[in-house]
Amino acid sequence: MQEAAAISQAHVVQSVFHLFNPHGVSGVVVIAESHFAIHTWPEYGYAAIDLFTCGEQVDPWKAFEFLKESFKASKVMTMEIKRGQLDVKGTELHYKPPGLEAKKDLLLTKVST
Question: Is position 39 annotated as part of the catalytic site?
Fold first, then answer.
């Protein structure tokens, strides 16, 4: 899940996972842009994964493709729900992590040299 977050360009804040006895795991990767969560039932060959993001920088579909391949999923079902569509007094709100512009400038400087 942490690698999926990195692949999607999310900014990981913290991760918490719980292993169940005899099997299964539940966990969440908190990202600055929301969260990725997983709940597994290995005895049924089933995993429920939620990839909640906001903003334009994070691509949850890259995380989805990575996880689908990692789990070698033979069957997948997806549902995309747009949330947090805010229009405040005619101004569209965009998420931007603190310091993102500085990181972009640094990356562009490195690329151009």
Answer: yes
